[in-house]
Amino acid sequence: MRSGFVPFIFFANYFVGMLAVALSVETVMQLDLPFASPAYYILLFAATVMYYTHAYTGATKSAVSANPRTEWYRTHAPFIAKGQKVLLIVCLLAAAYLLAKNSSGLFSLPLLYWVLLGSIPLAALLYYGLLPSAFNLRHTGWLKALVIGFVWAGSVSFLPVVMAKVEHGTAVHEAAFMQWLFIKNWVFCTVNAIMFDIKDYEDDNNIQLKTFVVRFGLQKTIFFILIPVLLIGIIALLIFTHYKNFSGIVIGLNLLPFISLLYVAYSLQKPKKILYYLIVIDGLLFIKALCGIGGILYLNYCC
To answer: Which of 160, 175, 172 is nearest to 28 (CA)?
Structure first.
């Protein structure tokens, strides 16, 4: 791509697709579940990239923009259009394969699984107003970050559990542990989403979208929302790891992403470029996945 490899990976949302796969692998390893088939991870990657790219498809027809990401989409309009079609075909083929291979396991899922399974795509579709509804979750201000955090937490915490049940007939050994991992991911991803709202402060303020940042201002959002929530998350993590009797190394690995997120949240008092958010802030999700996987590997092979 003529604008460089780094913008291509991050602007085109391929890195976000990698994050979804990495966080799902972290969940599988932490819950000691079998890995899903490659088709599932292909579907997850393609669907994530296509979903996030959809929000910028309108930018391909816009005028020249001072926003580097919007301008990238405008100048790469043909590639984006073809890419979305290819991703859709990949999603349909992967989904058809998984359905044909696992139809009996899928339709024998308990009702609770179906309720949770349906809530994730429903929230994702309503978030972008993709369903015929006057209630667009993306435009509900403070709810925006909570919704995207829920979609992420559900996708990477619950869907791997469903696939283990459908493909292998394996259930979670510790339901409480799964619930705790879901809440931890929800908190982490919600904080991540609020931090991204800082990037969009001026645009959101102009259209009267009352996100946390627009409603409370930058300083209050950082010091009275982001930092307190992260500190509560750290305390909850310490309590849970103590209860699970984890070693110091495992605790440290699980703490590192939260401490890093705390530092980055504090650093957002000064303006940052768009790629900072896409590389550093989203990169913390990748670090979280690597630390979680590393902690399990240490428990399995070094203890």
So the answer is: 160
Q: What are phi and psi of 258, to 5 degrees?
A: -70, -40
The residue type at 135: F
Q: Which residues contact 290 (CB under 8 A, 6 or more apart)?
A: 22
Q: Name the token pair of 78.
A: 């043909």
Give Cα separations from 94 to 7, 82, 142 (angstroms): 27, 18, 35
d(CA 98, CA 94): 6
- Say if residues 8 and 44 touch (Cβ distance below 8 Å): no
d(CA 235, CA 237): 5
What is the value of pTM for the model shown? 0.91
**Cβ proximity of 156 and 24 under 8 Å:** yes
What CATH code is assigned to 5-301?
1.10.600
**Cα 110 from Cα 99, distance rounded (Å):** 17
Read off the tokens for 2: 């003529």
Q: What is the pLDDT of residue 164?
A: 94
Give how far Cα 299 sits from Cα of 20, 179, 180, Å: 24, 21, 19
In this prediction, residue 211 carries a pLDDT of 74
What's the confidence (pLDDT) of residue 94? 97
Contacts of 194-203 spanning 24+ positions with Cβ under 8 A = 194/145, 194/221, 194/225, 194/226, 195/226, 195/264, 195/265, 195/268, 195/277, 195/281, 196/277, 196/281, 197/144, 197/145, 198/268, 199/272, 199/274, 199/277
Q: Where are the domains of the chain?
A: 5-301
Per-residue confidence (pLDDT) for residue 174, from 0 to 100: 82
All residue ranges of the chain with pLDDT < 50 are 1-2
